[in-house]
TrEMBL record:
It comes from the Eukaryota. Pfam families: Sulfotransfer_1. Belongs to the sulfotransferase 1 family. Gene3D superfamilies: P-loop containing nucleotide triphosphate hydrolases. Its EC number is 2.8.2.-. Residues 4-140 form the Sulfotransferase domain. This is Sulfotransferase. Keywords: Transferase. One of its GO terms (molecular function) is sulfotransferase activity.
Amino acid sequence: MNCLQPEPGDWASYLQRFREGKVTFGSWYDHVTGWWEKSQTSPNLLYLHYEDLAEDIDRELERLCSFLDVCPTEEERRRAKEGAKFDAMKDNVMTNGTLIKAMDPKISPFMRKGKVGDWKNHFTVSQNEQFDREYREKMANPVLRFRTEI
């Protein structure tokens, strides 16, 4: 997937490097907490979660419209909802990563299945327990929470 890291190795070794922040874009924990902290002081950032979109796209679209202070027509809302569907975004070069030179979709697409909870098909029980422990330690912010299921 990533030309800067063409040989990711097996899942277990990649997960270990990911947890340690030793992947191309650094620590996931630093990334998400950094943007969360910035969103708390910047009126120009809206933090959305994929699981929330999958659960209730109408609610999240309303949040987005409120944030942008826009009042779209029903047709515009319908088109936005269609365009925000996973399959539509996966086929859209503006959202699927194919325009990013460092990515190689022939190796592995940036967007995979779009299924909430698909991580369960990859993590072992032990890997999940370890990730949960690290998550609790590194994501101590009581407000910022990620869901892994709907």
